[in-house]
Each structure stands twice: as C-alpha cells, then as structure tokens.
Amino acid sequence: QEEPELVSAIYGRGIAYGKKGLHDMKNAELALFELSRVISLEPDHPEVFEQRAEILSPLGRISEALSDLTKAIQLQPSARLFRHRGTLHFISEDYATAHEDFQRSLELNKNQPIAMLYKGLTFFHRGLLKEAIESFKEALKQKADFIDAYKSLGQAYRELGNFDAATENFQKALLLNQNHVQTLQLKGMMLYHHGSLDEALKNFKRCLQLEPYNEVCQYMKGLSHVAMGQFYEGIKAQTKVMLNDPLPGQKASPEYLKVKYLREYSRYLHAHLDTPLTEYNIDIDLPGNFKDHWAKNLPFLIENYEEQPGLQPHIKDVLFQSFESYKPDVQELICVADHLGSMMQYETPGFLPNKRIHRAMGLATLEVMQAVQRTWANSKVRMNGKTRVMQWRDMFDIAVKWRRIADPDQPVLWLDQMPARSLSRGFNNHINLIRGQVINMRYLEYFEKILHFIKDRILVYHGANNPKGLLEVREALEKVHKVEDLLPIMKFNSKTRDGFTVNTKVPSLKDQGKEYDGFTITITGDKVGNILFSVETQTTEERTQLYHAEIDALYKDLTAKGKILILSAEMGEVDAVCNLILSLVYYFYNLMPLSRGSSVIAYSVIMGALMASGKEVSGKIPKGKASLVDFEAMTAPGSEAFSKIARGWMNLKSISPSYKTLPSVSETFPTLRTMIEVLNTDSSHCLKKTIVVV
C-alpha cells in the first residue's frame, strides 16, 4: 500500500495532464495511465472514475467511459453522474437508456435545465414529439433565456408541421442571440420547405455572414436562388460548396455529395428557360448514369461524364412578376390553383405545409383536367416534340413537370427511364418505420394496419409450414399489440429467427386471379431489442412491365368511357369513370415508378382527371387515419377497396361551370421561365378577392 499523499500526487498529475489538453493524444494517454494507477491503488473513489470517463469519451472510447461512470454511480450516485452517463448513452443513440438516466438525474436534482433539455431530445429522436415539447417547455421554466431549448422547441413544432409555433420559437431564440447560427440555419430550412424562398434566403445569408464556411447554409442559399430562377447567384454559391473538399479520411457532408448534381441540373434548367416545354424531356436529356447516381444519392463519380455547358449570358435570370401584372383571368387561375393545392395537404404530424408545392400541384391539377378533356374530345397533345394522342404517362408527366420545378433539390425521375443496368439491380423506394429507437412519426397511424396484415401472413405461413404449432402461434399472436412484440414469435421458426419479410399482393383487374408483388415489409431485431421495421418497393423491369400492362388496359378503358361521358353525362357513366381513375392510380401508387414525389403527383392526377369527368374533390384528406394516400393504396386489399376508401373522404360534388372558362395552363405557362415566375408571385390578394370557385 503506497502512502496516501503519493496517491493524491499521482491523481493531481493525472488531472493536470488531462487539463493540459485532451486534444493532445500524448497528454490524454499519460492522464489515463496516472488515473488507472490511482484506481488500482484506491478503487473506491467515484471522482477518479468520473475523471477517467471524461478523458475516455472525447477519445471515442465510449463503452469504457460508460463502465467507469457506472462504477462511480455504484460507489456514490449523484445527479451529475447520471446526467453525464445519460449524455454518453445519448451520443450512442441509445435514447431509451439515456432517458432513464436523465430522469434519475432530475429526480435527484430537479432544477437542471440541461438535463431537462436532453430528456426532451431523447423523446424527440424517438419520434415522440408531444412529450419532447413538454420537456423543452419545462427546461424553459427553469431557465428563461435558454436558447437551445427555444431552438429545439422550434424544431419539434416544425417536425409536427406546425409552422406558426415553430416560427415563434425560432424568433425567441434569435431575440436572445441574433447571431445564433444553428437557429438561423434551421429557420431557413423550415422556410424553404414551407415554400417561402425569399424569407429563407435572408436567413441563409445572415448565417453565412457569421460563418462563411457553413456548408448547409451555403448549399441552401444556392438552392433557394436556383429555385427562384436566379441562376448566376445560385451557381456561385453551389461552386463554393464544391470547393470544400473533405480531408482524407473525413466523411463528405450530404451537401457536398448533392451539390455537384444540383449544379449540373441548374445549368440544364438555365439553358432551357425559354425553350417551349413541349419540345424537350428531362428524363431523356440527362445522361443515364447521372440520373442513376443522383436518384440513389451516390457520390458523383461518373465515368466519362461530360459537364453541362456553363451559363449562356444571353439567357437572363428570372425576374419577379407582381400578381397585378397578370391578366384578371390568369389571376383567377392562380387563386384557384392555390385552393386546389391546399386540398392536398396531409393533416398529419410530420408534414409541413408548402405553399410553393401547393400552387405547383394546383396548376398541375388544372392542366391535367384540361388535357384529359381535350383527349376525350378527340384532340391531340404536344409532348416531347411530337403531336399525338395523350397516353397515361403524359398525364402523369404534366404533374411531374410541376413537382420538379417547385423544388429542384429532389430528383423526380421515372425509374424505368434509368439505364438498364441500374434497373436490373432493382431500385428500392425505402421507408424506415422504426429504426432502433427512432420511430417515423408520419406513418404511426399505419402501424396497426400493417401489424394486422403481418399477423395474417404469419398465420398463413405457419398453417402451411408448421401446422402442428399453429395453435401456439395463434395464441402468441393474440398477445401482440406492438411491432416489437413480434420479435419473440420470429423465434418459433428457425427460418424467421433473425427477422422476416412479408410481401403485400396486388390483385390484377385485367387477369382475374393473378397477383403482383406490392411492397415488402421487413422486420429484423437484435438481442438488445433494437428493431428495424421498414417498407420498400422493389422496382424491377419485370414488375414494372406487369404494372404497365395493367395501367395501359385501364387507361384505354378510361379514354373510351370518357369519350362517351363527354357526349352524355349519365350518373352511371360518371361513376364508372371515377372508379377507373382511382383504380389506375391505385396501380401507380403500388408501382411507385418515380424516384421521388409519386404521392402528390398521383393525387393531382386523380383530382385533375376527376374534374375532367365533371366531379370535384371537396373533402380534404382526413386528419390522421387515412391521410397518407400512398399508404392507403399500398395497404388496401385491391383497387375496388381503395376506390371505396378514397371516395369516402373525397366527397365528390358536381364541378362548378366556372372551371370551363379558366385560361389554358399549358398556353399561359409554356416555358420554365413562366412556370418559375408564377411560383414566385405573391398571391395573398387571393383571400381578399374571394373568386375561389365554390
């Protein structure tokens, strides 16, 4: 046993090395060596373990630091130790365990705004937004000028889709510190996704004044400029992001990965600002490998890639058009579009209303309506430089065109137009419903429905492969109320021990009795009970062809019935047309043929085609339950069931005659320039003049 003062001397040296600079590996190693000696001599001092944990955690040795803190807690529990350990669990993304530690820390000392903030963040990261908001508010009661709590509160409201409450809290954070870069960045992001590009830009510019190398703000500044048609400024900002090469061994930021695609796409859009939209096609023009890498979010390593030409000086940027500068009938067109677009808003937590997308998709709906009416009256359309009879893909392409220009950040591309190589491997549209402890809020309402479906499939599976154990499985399934309860049932069969996949089936209308693959539900679990619960659609060439044949047959039928409908509007006819439209889109939803945006594109086609048949959607997509139309289609047992659900809430009414007098969307906005202009224009006047068609 060494003399006590020697131990304290060693301890003092250990702390001194630790303080001298943890960024210096040598000092850190020395400190660890000294502290470990102290522990071997006197193993019952909690503060030595805590000291050692403080040195281990910045070195990334989290599990060692955790076991040190656990020892310290066993020796002498304190609020600080629980908070410290909670923080490490939090960094390791073990939010449930972190939550327990913060909770215990707060029980020992309730006045700890930081522990309260972290407790809220453990809720936030698990998708439990309402509980997170409660904790952030508690933290603010304890510390009124707590900037991070206001920022987190703003973020939680944003995730809930509550724009006003989010804005209010971001504002409060900025009142306390107008230079709070993180808040400026988050507020800018929210404004961009709300469709307020001008306002978003102000925040990104302010952020860059304070932090010139902030990649997120720089990327978003470039994106906002380009979306508004200011290509010179936009490409300048994008180029700055590109110069920010990651150091060797450093992971490239998401912005760095995306910016090269955005810059190439921006150059392409700029070059086509004044080319009539009917004369070119983005899916055909952009190189196959470029589209493939962009949609899959891969690093930009494309062999023999030929860059898009730089900006041509004779093509001017898009200028701002005031609402008053449009003719009265076009003003009305814009106001009607805003109204139609707002009908598509999901009233579900997690969906922030986006005015720009609303206007774009409202105009798409009207353009689809006009194109379908012309087709039924035996007129042709002009697409991709050819005048021909409109096909079903052209109808969707109208909506694709508007969705693309509303947010150039997202590649909205037809997957079957990708290079053959990338399709043969299959394209996965993947949505995580639960990843570990992280729950995807948006789809919470569907868990039960999907769970029910999985239980049925498990019974069918065991009925075929394990008839003896069927009763036991059935009894076990009775007790399953949450997705994670399925994990023990997986153990009943060696094949499904580590997890299983269930495929939904989509019945054919064309060939009775035939079924196609819908989407795949995967559940896997590990020993710790971390679960991955996800759905994806596999886009393979064969699957695509089966669906196309189905949609072709329905479209042919729809066109024939539409032509009769235009001549004689009998109730029975309208009904049949309505069912054909919904069935056609049911297959589109299950096919998921686009890299992004399939959902809102399909919905505007439904609305536009129904309007062509003389029916208007007057009901909003209902709150909560049936709010995600794509999920409704994917979980419906067949097209008739989907039609019935959708008609239940669409509340179809006869269309008002004033739609007939609206000007032609494709003639009013014949180029990208005119489309961007109309998306930029401010239409707050619409509310004053109630010319919205009632």
From TrEMBL:
Keyword annotations of the record: TPR repeat
UniProt cross-references to InterPro entries, sorted A to Z: TPR-like_helical_dom_sf, TPR_rpt
Name of the coding gene: Ttc13
Pfam families: TPR_1 (PF00515), TPR_16 (PF13432), TPR_8 (PF13181)
Protein name: TTC13 protein
Ligase listed as a keyword: no
Stretches forming TPR repeats: 79-112, 147-180, 181-214
Organism, scientific name: Ceyx cyanopectus
Keyword Transferase (UniProt): no
